[in-house]
Amino acid sequence: MPPKKNKKSGKNGYWEFVLDCRNKHPNKQNMHEVQEYAARKWASMSKEERRPYEERALLAREMYSPARYTTDGIDIEVVERKERDEARKKQEMKDDITRTLKAAYFATDLDEKIFLVIHINHLAYYPTEDKYFICEIAIAAVSLKNGVEDVFHRIVKPGKLPLGYYGGALTHSKETHQMLELVQDEPYENNTREVFNEMTSFLKLWRGKGSDSIVYADEKTHEMITKVIDNFCQEFNYPDEIKVYNFQYLFFALRNSVAARTVWPTETYSSTELEKDLYSYTPDISCEFHEMSDISVYCSKSIVTRYCYTLCDHCCTDLNIQLVAGFHVPKNSRIAVDSSRTNSKAPSVCSTDDYRQAARSRVGSFSSTYDENYPALGSSRSSASSVVSFSSMRTPRNVGQPTKAATRIEQSFKAMSVRDHRNLNFPPKGYEKQNEK
Ligand SMILES: [Zn+2]
């Protein structure tokens, strides 16, 4: 039997099928005959066979339904759906970051957990292909224990810009990174595949266990970077997923998970701290090109490094990790040692300890080769053309006797679970214990 006619919309899959039959039927004029044929045929059709008609009907209903529009002429329903999608994605991202921190906490290696911070400079957005033409990329690998462990940096030559996009790119370039002329010269080389391959090798090296890579991007560039990475993955058939998460949220959640005393009540605190950009004039952390052009503030390499410094600056002391100049903070920083929080017998040290006998013996073997003056990010080491320096900075620095860092982490998480259940929902065990006291 044909389905009942949907009076409200007037369009359903069956109706689309009848129209189709009429067009193909040898006796088009006889609508009665057509309908009879269609009804019989429809009844015998499988779900799969009916699907194209159902889909066509759905499309027709959407097209003819009275839609509301924004002042820009965009369907409100589309806008709302997009907003819902974005909100859902954002929540998923937050949950995932929280889970990651929690897992690291239970594995007692939160201080060694590597976070990958990314920044990309672009020339222009090309809407026809929904893609960005980019010119510079940098990813820093940072852990609270060792600070900036490594930085991947590459100047990207994206091929010739499409006609009509040079002017916009020139304006953007002049106001920011000034790289247009550098990457847009004859014969308009395209090294994106090469850069992508090197970047994924770097990610694989640092992502640890698990198959997905997560990179953290500033919320202002988050959308652009997500698009760039997604396009790359598609274009070069990359089999794994690279997730781009919000660095501000990571900073907020990580800071709150280690904060023993003051927890940030809202995410805006992390944004505000990053906006201060205290390390914006740090020498020797940008690429050769930007260092020479004296505009290092816009250099991707410098930006990711500064983000890492800010992160360390706010998260290390609560874990009793002594900041090391050139790794946690800029090279020539004067670091105050808080004696009240540091064990005088084993100062300036954090190794989260009692749990990791094995790790400690490994550390012991490294310590003999430890080089006090190991340059973390010196431009002499990683010039613009010299790509990657990965694994060069793996030598542990915070080597020595364990302190009470583990206890501190535990306390911080307990405090956190009391004060901010919503953000980091840790098991209530620690909380109960604390209450018993
Ligand atoms: Zn640069």
From TrEMBL:
Q: Where in the cell is it found?
A: Cytoplasm; Nucleus
Q: Which residues form the Maelstrom domain?
A: 127-334
Show the InterPro entries listed in the entry.
HMG_box_dom, HMG_box_dom_sf, Maelstrom, Protein_maelstrom
An MF annotation (GO) of this entry: sequence-specific DNA binding
Name of protein: Maelstrom
* Coiled-coil residues: none
Keyword annotations for this protein?
Cytoplasm, Developmental protein, Differentiation, DNA-binding, Meiosis, Nucleus, RNA-mediated gene silencing
Work out whether the entry's keyword set contains Flavoprotein: no
Protein's organism: Tribolium castaneum
Q: What do the Gene Ontology cellular component annotations say?
A: nucleus; P granule
- Name the segments for region: Disordered: 414-437
